[in-house]
Design a protein that fits this description.
homodimer; about 350 residues; alpha/beta; 434 Repressor (Amino-terminal Domain); Rossmann fold; 3 domains; six-stranded parallel beta sheet; six-stranded mixed beta sheet; 12 strands; about 40% helix; about 15% strand; elongated; DNA-binding; HTH_LacI (chains A, B)
Chain lengths: ~350, ~350
DNA sequence: CTGAAAGCGCTTACAG
DNA sequence: CTGAAAGCGCTTACAG
């Protein structure tokens, strides 16, 4: 026949004409209205008509264009995920949880890693907004750090996940105090009475949350801490190793249990205890924090540790953002999500 | 005045009318054609007009709707990133590299983690396709594993990154053989002559690539391996620890260097050597593979190791997908990208 | 029960 | 140098 009707000047897609709902309508001899309604289950029409349209769509392998729908409905079914952590271990499960929760509701996730530079960060946010994301999740690698972007003027809902947000925002964090209490209560249950706490640098908020939980649980059990203050160091194995010396020397009675601020410290501590001929958990029980499998499961003996349920946290954040996007009421504030204790051999 | 003209039945966005190019045109008293061209730098018009339009856009904080542009241009400036690894360490830098390379070209990345289930995986791919992604990157946690999705019928370009693809596809992997040669050549340079290889399970392709590189580099230096075969175990510290025993016992002369299949094995091996009173690197030099900072930097002494440049690999994959999307020629095949040696104290 | 038409927000060939 | 109009692919109120 003759040339096809004039098309947009941009030309056809490289891989041959794509099939649209017009093609489906034509193939099943109905209007596009009917075709659209048949496929979406809307409207009323003869069952036979609906089936005929569906069959035609299948035969043509029709794939509805979500971009066209988004333009019309003013809703992209897309959200933006901002993270400032590309190597770390915390954002990854959070991201997986978000992605899982949303993908199942037909929402796709734009991943965007914002580094230190606020100018670049802002341009990434702008790009998301131009792409009409329905909402944004800001996630970080530290509970107490902010992303280097200003989300206050943004006209879509924002949820913070494992990341500090501004006053009045909606956010989710792990309840590190509760996690610490869980750990200490478990040690007390096992009969431990002289429990020490070895942890990371004081400029981390989690160090304080965990120390508070530690102190509260001891008090609840009517015990005094084996040291007035937690032993502060860094997050490394080397520090855990060194801390063993500080704990065992001096006039005070040695501890019969140590609650560590993270798994690496616990690992170093266990190594040092073992080297000194002490048995874990018989002489000293040890609990870590993070449940970083690569450490917790490789430690001899395997490490009892607090898991922050980060994937769950991500799932909550995703679902809550969806509530906000779809206009369901959500009260502002930071929600603390409970941790769980993963019991392995190091605590008996 | 009177009510605003009838709008689409879906109603306005919740947060007040969004500003469109019509608003900008009206505010600067030009047609939408001129407004569009003024903002995009196209067309020819009085400089003053262009400036006036730009000023109006800025004053109204006009944000062009990328969805509308995508519908018109048949190009979404969006790609899909499939990964089957949500906790591991390899995909993360690959993803960061992809994301970085593309975000800088105005392309956003849909993150989608596909677990084992092929049905779910396929539905995620369908969702991406409905959202009109310009292309797809499949990335995995193992060089020799495939994603549980069939990408062969997909009508957009696909690139594989640290992941096995089908015959004739475009992919990027690390050159583990070259990485191993780098490590051994370095040891030879340092004067080592009896070099052993301790590595992971045989069903990993990388185990063979690294062992081949090891053998080739020894041969090139005119050296015989201290053992006929590499010592095969798993990827754990425990195995590295145990391997030290196997290496030092028996009639053969002990090695003066060990090239390990990963950093965890190296870590365990160093621990065992140290425990036996051997000095690293003076008595035995040790090199790892992966450059997993948390292990490599924490080892005593810090570990010399092979870095696979995964972020770079991701960047290449992203840029190549863009080439494909934009119609530039790309020859099919798997490209091996070089590793680099990160020298620390464990090799002298 | 079914169809023609408007419109989401943009870009671009074409006419003036 | 500038503007009116068509069209990307879809959904939906409205008319028949």
């Amino acid at each position: 026949m003759d040339d096809r009707a004039p098309r947009a000047a941009t030309g056809r897609a490289k891989r041959g004409a794509r099939v649209t709902i017009h093609d489906v309508a034509k193939a099943s001899s109905v209007s596009v209205t009917t075709a659209s309604q048949a496929l979406s289950g809307q409207g009323r029409m003869a069952l036979a008509t609906r089936e005929r349209v569906k069959a035609a769509a299948k035969a043509l392998s029709f794939r509805p264009n979500a971009i066209a729908r988004a333009l019309l409905k003013q809703r992209s079914f897309t959200i933006g995920l901002l993270t400032n952590d590309t190597y770390g271990r915390f954002t990854l499960p959070v991201m997986a949880g978000i992605s899982e929760a949303l993908v199942d509701r037909g929402v796709s996730v734009f991943l965007c890693s914002v580094e230190r530079d606020p100018v670049i960060g802002q341009s990434h946010v702008d790009a998301m907004l131009e792409k009409q994301v329905d909402g944004i999740i800001a996630s970080g690698k530290r509970l107490d750090s902010r992303l280097p972007v200003d989300l206050s003027g943004v006209d879509v809902p924002v949820v913070y996940a494992y990341c500090e947000g501004p006053e009045g925002s909606v956010g989710f964090v792990s309840d590190d105090g509760q996690g610490a209490r869980l750990a200490v209560a478990h040690l007390v249950d096992r009969g431990c009475r002289r429990i020490a706490h070895v942890t990371g640098p004081e400029d981390f908020a989690v160090v304080h949350r965990r120390a508070e939980g530690f102190a509260a649980a001891l008090a609840a059990a009517g015990l005094a801490p084996v040291r007035a203050e937690p032993l502060i160091g860094d997050w490394s194995e080397a520090w855990g190793f060194a801390a063993a010396g500080a704990l065992l020397e001096g006039p005070a009675a040695p501890p019969d249990a140590v609650f560590c601020g993270n798994d690496q410290i616990a690992r170093g501590l266990i190594d040092a205890l073992t080297l000194r001929g002490l048995r874990v958990p018989q002489d000293v029980a040890v609990i870590g924090f993070d449940n970083w499998e690569i450490f917790a499961a490789a430690t001899r003996p395997p490490l009892t540790t607090v898991d922050m349920n980060l994937k769950d946290l991500g799932r909550h954040a995703g679902l809550t953002l969806l509530d906000l996007v779809e206009g369901r009421p959500v009260s502002p504030g930071i929600r603390k999500l409970p941790c769980r204790l993963v019991v392995r051999a190091s605590s008996g």
